[in-house]
Amino acid sequence: MPSHSNENLSKVYFQDFVLEGFGGGLETQALLFAVFLALYMVTVLGNILMIIVITLDARLHSPMYFFLKNLSFLDLCYSSVITPNALANFFSSSKIITFAGCATQLFFFSLLATTEAFLLGVMAYDRFMAICSPLRYPITMCQSACTRLVLGAYCGGCLNSVVQTSFTFHLSFCSSNRINHFFCDVPPLLQIACGNTAINELLLFGICGLIIVGVTFVILISYGYIIVTILRMSSGAGRRKVFSTCGSHMTAVTLFFGTVFVMYAQPGAIESMEQGKVVSVFYTLIIPMLNPLIYSLRNKDVKEALWRLGQKHMAM
Fold first, then answer.
1. What is the Cα–Cα distance from 195 to 48, expressed in whole angstroms?
2. Is 167 exposed, middle or buried (0-12, 13-18, 19+ CB in 10 A)?
3. pLDDT tens figures, 58-102
4. Which residues have CB under 8 Å from 110's CB, separation 6+?
5. Contact, 13 vs 259, CB < 8 A?
6. Cβ distance 289 to 43 under 8 Å?
7. Strand partners of residue 17
8. How confident is the model at residue 196 (pLDDT cuts 50, 70, 90)?
């Protein structure tokens, strides 16, 4: 519903937004609905299963799996912030989202996605301590230390989310209320904002670029030391186990940071919304769906825990 400003009656300020989503006719929308629904169901089931297995199996009560459980929780939550509303809009004639609803969606998406970025850095540090300093590992990565690291990741995510959401919704939206995306995100909102958005673009690229570069630096340094330590190992079995565990994490890191960089940390990202929609599908649906598969299929401990859980369930 538009409202007129007292200062300037030529401008119309919108109180609701329209999420345009993907183009195409009814058949295209039905196909996209089926794809999104299938991906979301696998995401929910896979991440819930990971959380249950890690919680119930005492052999997985270690720092690495504590962080992995939190990763599954984040994947489940930030996919759920986006996908249910996107599914509802495929067959909706209005596709309306309120101003408050849009701000809320952006806040929680930014919070959870940024927290996941920091958590991936924490997981690399955990592997560094476990492999390069095994004697100090139980003391350095005790339960309280792990909890503080996770809380720190959430605090970093919350800080970025507050900055991005407050600066974005401090703008006036008077040129249009049609968001060329399937959820509320900073780049498409800046496209329809009135006035100068240079500061917002600088904040988006600057903060996201700093987070990506900072976390990537921590990960590269950690894995640099890990690779040197692995090459010094005399046991072939131990070397393979370390490569398997670290390979899963590096796969998840590459997928996540690769798509986030394309969307937020390169010039011109705001103008290329059609590309942005496709990239957004990767980090809102495909990556949260793949993470449980990556960590379970490549991890012997998780596969054994899944087998024990299945045997226990069949015995009941």
1. 44
2. middle
3. 888 999 999 999 999 999 998 999 999 999 999 888 889 999 999
4. 157, 160, 161, 164, 165, 186
5. no
6. yes
7. 97
8. confident
Chain-centre distance of CA 149, in angstroms?
18
- Compute the distance between CA of residue 71 and CA of residue 30 in angstroms, rounded to an integer: 31
The CA distances from residue 60 to 45, 57, 64, 208, 300, in Å, are: 19, 6, 8, 33, 11
- Beta bridge partner(s), residue 3: 13
Site of tokens 């996209």: 32
Q: Looking up tokens 């989310």, which residue turns up?
A: 161
Cα 132 to Cα 187: distance, rounded to the nearest angstrom: 41
**Rg (the chain; Cα; Å):** 22
**Which tokens sit at 5?**
């400003």
Instruction: Retrieve residue 268's tokens.
Output: 């011109």
Residue 18 phi, psi dihedral angles, 5° rounding: -115, 120
Cross-sheet strand order for the sheet of 16-19? 96-98, 16-19, 178-179
The string of pLDDT tens digits covering residues 202-242 is: 888 888 889 988 999 999 999 888 888 887 876 666 667 66
Q: HEC profile for the chain? A: CEEECCCCCCCEEECEEEECCCCCCHHHHHHHHHHHHHHHHHHHHHHHHHHHHHHHCHHHCCHHHHHHHHHHHHHHHHHHHHHHHHHHHHCCCCCEEEHHHHHHHHHHHHHHHHHHHHHHHHHHHHHHHHHHCCCCHHHHCCHHHHHHHHHHHHHHHHHHHHHHHHHHHCCCCCCCCEECCCCCCHHHHHHCCCCCCHHHHHHHHHHHHHHHHHHHHHHHHHHHHHHHHHHCCCCHHHHHHHHHHHHHHHHHHHHHHHHHHHHHCCCCCCCCHHHHHHHHHHHHHHHHHHHHHHHHHCCHHHHHHHHHHHHHHHHC
Residues in the chain, total: 316
> What does the block give as tokens for 222?
């950690």
pLDDT tier at 9 (50, 70, 90 boundaries)? very low
